[in-house]
Design goal:
Elements lengths: L44 H26 L13 H8 L7 E3 L5 H6 L4 H9 L8 H4 L10 H16 L5 E6 L6 H13 L3 E7 L2 E2 L2 E2 H4 L15 E5 L3 H16 L5 E6 L18 H8 L3 H11 L5 H23 L19 H22 L1
Parallel strand pairs: 1-2, 2-3, 3-7, 6-7
Antiparallel strand pairs: 4-5
Helix pairs in contact: 1-2, 1-11, 1-12, 2-9, 4-12, 6-7
């Protein structure tokens, strides 16, 4: 497979949501895509219910994060409402020993990889640079530097090659990151060395306050073949299509055929972060159009049509969401801040004289505040 559902060089397709691979329409109706269908033959109704549950729980985590920030319990929060299908669909396609390299907005990837309630909020509260062991979840610390994780993923994938393993690395980034040198350099290395890495570009239409059309006159997926990387443009609000596309991309990389690239066309329903006001640069009409393409609603419509969206299922999912939200809130509000000097504990694996000197200097600095308070 090479490029799929992409380039008509005479048309402006940067934001064209009809020119995508899809298995589930916004109305919740199943459609057949010849490139995707084979990759979800094993996905039965029970599996779709699990995907629905995942997305509902992710949305509840996200809502809780926003609420905690508004209440002063976390310093910042990057909402992912509207992007649940992209995150859950692609992350659920990964094998347990594959390694994910998410950006700051991929809360759903951390969730799907086994994150605990505290893992979603404590870093945003400022309690630590990372609240989970990357090697336990096989997920790197969420990267806030735009596009940097793409290079990390390629480096990891090249290490897998040299170790003779068959794991795959997955680099997640937004449409804005594709204008960064890091992402382009990562694709050069990945292509040149045939690295087993999948690039997942979440095209959510806005890089902070700049629309994707400013930086991508044509589909972002069309850039990858220029690096010798096969790509697919997929409906990022269709969890089945995201799962299928990611399975194709992972299979391609795992079999030694080199990197693959996915552009998931979706929408950021909320602000860029909780410090942003999207009403200053987005039209209400645009938001409402995308609200009608909601990824959770379309799976609900599918399950209702199949007669498996009953009161018992709804109550079970709602109870799970409530319980998880309570745990997330307790993790933030019950956090105990570590002693200031502990910031030096995990800098080096072995003792280091330079760190000892810095620790002593910082201790003296803190003692100065104590002396002032006593005075």
């Amino acid at each position: 497979m090479t490029t799929v559902h992409t380039l008509n060089p005479m048309a402006d397709l940067a934001t064209d949501v009809d020119d995508v691979a899809r298995l589930l329409t916004p109305a919740g109706e199943r459609v057949v895509d010849p490139d995707l269908q084979q990759w979800i033959e094993d996905v039965d109704t029970a599996a779709i219910q699990r995907l629905y549950r995942d997305m509902v729980l992710l949305r509840r985590i996200d809502a809780e994060g926003v609420a905690l920030q508004r209440q002063g319990q976390v310093g910042l929060w990057p909402p992912c409402q509207g992007q649940e299908a992209t995150q859950i669909g692609t992350a659920r396609a990964l094998r347990a020993d594959d390694f994910a390299f998410p950006s700051y907005r991929e809360t759903g990837v951390v969730y799907a990889r086994g994150g605990k309630p505290s893992d979603y909020v404590l870093a945003w509260r400022g309690e630590g640079h990372s609240t989970y062991d990357p090697y336990e979840l096989h997920t790197a610390t969420q990267q806030i530097i735009i596009g940097a994780q793409s290079l990390h993923a390629v480096g990891y994938a090249m290490g897998v090659q040299r170790d003779g393993g068959d794991q795959v690395a997955a680099a997640y980034f937004g449409d804005g990151a594709t204008s960064q040198g890091d992402v382009n350099e990562a694709m050069v290395f990945a292509s040149s060395f045939g690295a087993p890495v999948v690039f997942v570009c979440t095209n959510n239409q806005w890089a902070i306050s700049e629309p994707v059309s400013v930086q991508a006159r044509f589909p972002i997926a069309g850039r990858a073949p220029g690096f010798g990387i096969p790509s697919m443009r997929v409906d990022g609000n269709d969890v089945l299509a995201c799962l299928a596309a990611m399975r194709w991309a992972i299979d391609h990389a795992r079999k030694g055929r080199g990197p693959a690239f996915l552009e998931a066309v979706t929408y950021r329903m909320g602000p860029h972060t909780t410090s942003d006001d999207p009403t200053r640069y987005r039209d209400k009409e645009e938001v409402e159009i995308w609200r009608r393409r909601d990824p959770i609603d379309r799976v609900e419509a599918l399950l209702r049509a199949e007669g498996v969206f009953d009161d018992a299922f709804v109550a079970e999912v709602a109870a799970d969401a409530d319980a998880l939200a309570a745990e997330v809130r307790q993790a933030a509000m019950g956090a105990v801040t570590r002693a200031p000097l502990s910031i030096f504990d995990d800098v080096y694996a072995e003792p280091h004289s330079g760190i000892d000197e810095q620790r002593a200097a910082y201790a003296a600095y803190l003692d100065g505040f104590a002396a002032t308070q006593e005075g």
